[in-house]
Q: What sequence folds into this?
């Protein structure tokens, strides 16, 4: 796999990617701002949401056991998976037991995280992605680049061309409505013929055993209700004590993600079809996935488990807006991805991510559950430093500079020398090429130091 | 100011960047603070607050520099800094860095509580407005991230700049969006940083202002350096220079 910088450079060189990201993230940013302005006491709602999540993360075992008992009482079967592989094996096992040839999948980032699409393919089970953007990704054989809009990196013009190439009866008129209709024609009949429906969960309601999903297309409902079996894969941090706790989080989720007050569809699934029900699956399986979450809680990343996957942090991130999601290289991009990916894929493989951030704090400012993302990113930097993963040049550079800065007298001498020699490099106020400072001067000029340092000038003035 | 009012003893922490690159900002700070009735002391032992070590993940060196800086800055009524990010490091991060050190934590907290970004200090603590500052010009203002989000510096510089005679201020589209400097970020990820600052430079140009103002020299060097490379005529100053009546001097990158 190529490194982060290579991927970022490729992204920066792609003007169509920039256009695609800007269209969606720019709109989301503007709409979120309006939604927040119209929300009575948004800051208190964020406090409450963070407190709800902190409470369940602290008492995770208690609420998971309650959820399990109530889900079983409602007729569902509950499975526990420690790792991604274990979760996939459980899902494949359920599909095989159901004799499934095809599954309809409703978009789930946890499914991506555990590699479920790949596992289904290996098991020879056909997969129909029912979310429009996931359908685009499946047609293009790509990976999601955003947690809310998996196909954010594609412009509508690119999607139109893709549909024309891949759909059986593609749109004739060049409009978004006609393209959506083309996707509907392509997907609807195949969706209804699926043997198993697989979804994630936005919330797990402990006191009822219900699973909540939110969508804007109604694809979850259409892919989960008709098949004989419904399988849910959910991260254990999705738990909330009751419906009364899910609602305040739901109110923040859609507003933070798209600026809408609520998603078009918010559905609570409580157990399979009961006697007398007109529809619903005969079996409902809920796979509760840890995949490193318990360890995150113990290793200083408990606050990250508050995340409700709204995507506001990446929509507002200056780095994400320039490079898009694929450059991050993990399941989750942007600031939340830069915190999660080292935990999921290992710090050694993702060392760049916590560093590729200006620590400007915007992500924390917009996070509906107040995750201190910059602090968590700094935490990864510290761990990377402790574990010796930082390049030797950085270690030497910071070490040398710090040992000078600890000695004020030496520091004065070095600063005076630096000011003098930097001045020699300049031409009429500006330095266009800086030895060892190419990172700066490749793209911008460096102002020449004024001359003597402040400390030298100040001392001289005081003596007068 | 009433003569019987005891004057505030203020330690000026100049910052390593101002010391090295643009001492004028330090002298402007002294001038404004004295005009606001403060007694200004420049403690000898100061060097750098340690932010580069902190943000690189080098906690040991960050702690060592924090202790050294605390020693230099103890014993004053206030510590005032012409930089939101350095002030943020001392005010928000020193107590974190030294949280496990029973001896140093109280000292870190005492220094943190007294530490101010200069424009917030002049406005909130001194209630001061520039009286004799004049600068004919059309300016726009960029909110540097640490000052804005760690310290709440937003209205204070604008209130002070409003009192500068002859100056008009046009809002910058995306004024709260990071300029892409990010300390060592700009040299570790130069291509990403460049893409960010290129957008910032375009937004600055679009205001039609001839002057760019901000409260942090690092961000200013980044934006001014990009503007100059692109052939822009926009001139950049630290806002305190104008507030102190030193807006007639050379801009960043202009020889005196």
A:
């Amino acid at each position: 796999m190529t490194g982060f910088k290579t991927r970022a450079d490729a992204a920066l060189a792609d003007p169509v990617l920039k256009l695609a990201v800007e269209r969606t993230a720019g709109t989301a940013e503007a709409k979120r701002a309006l939604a927040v302005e119209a929300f009575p006491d948004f800051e208190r709602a964020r406090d409450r949401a963070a407190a709800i999540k902190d409470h369940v993360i602290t008492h995770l075992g208690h609420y998971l056991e309650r959820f399990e008992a109530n889900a079983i009482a409602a007729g569902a079967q509950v499975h526990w998976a420690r790792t991604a592989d274990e979760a996939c094996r459980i899902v494949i096992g359920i599909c095989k037991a159901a004799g499934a040839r095809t599954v309809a999948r409703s978009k789930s980032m946890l499914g991506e995280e555990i590699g479920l699409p790949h596992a289904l393919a290996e098991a020879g089970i056909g997969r129909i992605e029912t979310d429009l953007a996931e359908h685009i990704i499946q047609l293009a054989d790509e990976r999601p680049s955003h947690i809310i809009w998996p196909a954010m990196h594609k412009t509508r013009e690119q999607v139109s061309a893709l549909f024309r190439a891949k759909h059986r009866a593609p749109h004739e008129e060049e409009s978004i409505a006609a393209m959506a209709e083309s996707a509907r024609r392509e997907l609807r009949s195949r969706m209804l013929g699926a043997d198993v429906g697989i979804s994630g969960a936005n919330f797990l309601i402990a006191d009822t055993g219900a699973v909540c999903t939110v969508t804007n297309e109604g694809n979850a409902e259409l892919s989960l209700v008709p098949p004989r079996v419904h399988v849910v894969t959910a991260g254990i941090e999705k738990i909330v004590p009751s419906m009364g706790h899910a609602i305040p989080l739901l109110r923040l989720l859609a507003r933070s993600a798209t600026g809408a007050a609520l998603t078009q569809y918010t559905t609570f699934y409580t157990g399979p079809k009961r006697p007398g029900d007109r529809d619903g699956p005969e079996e409902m399986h809920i796979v509760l996935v840890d995949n490193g979450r318990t360890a995150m809680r113990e290793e200083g990343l408990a606050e990250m488990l508050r995340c409700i996957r709204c995507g506001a942090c990446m929509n507002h991130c200056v780095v994400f807006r320039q490079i898009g999601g694929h450059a991050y290289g993990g399941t989750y991009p942007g600031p939340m991805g830069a915190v999660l990916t080292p935990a999921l894929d290992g710090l050694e493989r993702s060392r760049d991510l916590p560093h590729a951030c200006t620590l400007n704090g915007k992500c924390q400012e917009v996070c509906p559950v107040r995750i201190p993302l910059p602090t968590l990113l700094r935490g990864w930097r510290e761990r990377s430093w402790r574990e010796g993963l930082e390049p030797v040049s950085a270690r030497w550079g910071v070490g040398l500079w710090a040992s000078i800065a600890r000695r004020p007298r030496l520091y004065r001498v070095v600063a005076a020398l630096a000011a003098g020699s930097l001045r020699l490099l300049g031409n009429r106020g500006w330095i266009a090429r800086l030895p060892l400072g190419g990172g700066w001067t490749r793209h911008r000029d460096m102002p020449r130091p004024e001359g003597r340092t402040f400390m030298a000038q100040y001392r001289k003035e005081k003596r007068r | 100011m009433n003569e019987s009012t005891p004057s505030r003893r203020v330690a000026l922490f100049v910052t390593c960047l101002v010391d090295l690159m643009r001492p004028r900002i330090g002298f402007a700070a002294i001038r404004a603070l004295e005009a606001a009735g403060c007694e200004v002391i420049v403690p000898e032992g100061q060097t750098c607050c340690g932010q580069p070590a902190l943000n690189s993940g080098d906690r040991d060196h960050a702690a060592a520099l924090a202790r050294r800086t605390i020693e230099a800055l103890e014993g004053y009524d206030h510590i005032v800094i012409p930089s939101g990010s350095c002030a943020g490091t001392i005010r928000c991060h020193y107590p974190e860095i030294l949280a496990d050190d029973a001896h140093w934590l109280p000292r870190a907290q005492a220094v943190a509580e007294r530490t101010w970004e200069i424009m917030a200090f002049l406005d909130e603590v001194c209630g001061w407005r520039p009286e004799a500052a004049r600068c004919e010009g059309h300016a726009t203002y960029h909110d540097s991230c640490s000052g804005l989000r760690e310290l709440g510096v937003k209205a204070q510089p604008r209130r002070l700049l409003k009192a500068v005679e002859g100056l008009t201020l046009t809002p910058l589209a995306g004024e709260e969006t990071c300029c892409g400097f990010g300390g060592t970020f700009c040299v570790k990820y130069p291509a990403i940083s460049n893409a960010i600052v290129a957008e910032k430079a375009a937004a600055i140009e679009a205001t039609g202002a001839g002057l760019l103002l901000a409260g942090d020299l690092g961000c200013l060097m980044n934006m001014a350096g990009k503007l100059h490379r692109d052939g822009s005529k926009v001139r950049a100053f630290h806002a305190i220079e104008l507030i102190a009546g030193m807006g007639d001097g050379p801009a960043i990158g202009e020889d005196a």
Q: What stands out?
A: The longest strand of chain B covers residues 134-141. Residues 8-124 of chain B form a domain with the Rossmann fold fold (CATH 3.40.50).
